[in-house]
């Protein structure tokens, strides 16, 4: 269940979804993953257009999809942003994450079964959440696996989804009907 029982900022309606929103965010589609957050941010048209341009890079960049989703999901978990978790669990499955791996993300970097890179991404998300800083040891491990371009993308992805988690939690963005939230068995 999202932190708030009701939205503080209601999503725009289909009638209010303008052509300018379609130009940058796609057509009105309540079945689309993430529709409610898009329709919520659309209450501020200028912000929506600028955010979408940045957001497109955050969801399609130099980090491979599986690893990117692990980082995003850990950010959502750390921030207790159930909407973020729910949407990116769907993307994570598309990127090859299993239900067991989704649950393991909630257990952290020390859970068995992660690759060195996956463990370092989870650890980086935790360190950024705790201290807004990636430690030297974690940075060195990330740098063993990622290019400079990918390192920057990783930092921006984790920062971006931290910001989005704050917006989701504070605006009360609600899960779409039929969308599952936290994974079964997670210690929420």
Short description:
By secondary structure, the chain is mainly alpha-helical. The protein has helices spanning 19-25, 35-41, 45-59, 65-78, 82-94, 99-107, 116-131, 136-145, 148-171.
Descriptive notes:
With 188 residues, this protein is mainly alpha-helical. The chain has a domain at 65-168: AhpD-like (Up-down Bundle), CATH 1.20.1290.10. The chain is 61% helix and 0% strand. It is built from 9 helices and no strands. The protein has helices at 19-25, 35-41, 45-59, 65-78, 82-94, 99-107, 116-131, 136-145, 148-171. Helix 7 (116-131) packs antiparallel against helix 8 (136-145).
Helical segment tally?
9
DSSP summary, beta strand count: 0
Structural class: mainly alpha
The succession of helices and strands, N to C, reads HHHHHHHHH
- The share of residues in helices is 55-70%
**Uncertain regions spanning at least 5 consecutive residues:** none
Average pLDDT over all residues: 95
Q: What CATH first level of one domain would be assigned? A: Mainly Alpha
CATH superfamily of one domain: AhpD-like
Report the end-to-end length measured between terminal Cα atoms. Answer: 10 Å
| Strand residues, percent | under 5%
What global shape is seen?
globular
The major sheet is characterized as: none
CATH architecture of one domain: Up-down Bundle
Radius of gyration: 16 Å
- At CATH level 3, the topology of one domain is AhpD-like
């Amino acid at each position: 269940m999202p932190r708030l029982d009701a939205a503080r900022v209601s999503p725009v309606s289909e009638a209010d979804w303008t052509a300018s929103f379609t130009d940058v965010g796609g057509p009105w589609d309540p079945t689309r993953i993430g529709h409610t957050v898009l329709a919520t941010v659309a209450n501020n048209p200028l912000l929506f257009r600028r955010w979408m341009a940045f957001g497109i890079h955050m969801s399609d960049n130099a980090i491979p999809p599986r690893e990117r989703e692990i980082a995003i999901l850990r950010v959502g978990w750390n921030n207790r942003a159930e909407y973020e978790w729910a949407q990116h669990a769907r993307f994570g499955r598309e990127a090859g994450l299993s239900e067991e791996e989704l649950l393991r993300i909630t257990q952290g970097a020390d859970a068995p079964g992660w690759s060195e890179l996956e463990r370092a991404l989870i650890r980086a998300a935790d360190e950024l959440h705790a201290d807004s800083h990636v430690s030297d040891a974690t940075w060195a491990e990330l740098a063993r696996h990622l290019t400079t371009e990918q390192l920057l993308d990783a930092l921006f992805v984790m920062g971006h989804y931290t910001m989005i988690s704050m917006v989701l939690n504070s605006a009360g963005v609600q899960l779409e009907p039929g969308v599952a939230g936290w994974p079964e068995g997670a210690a929420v």
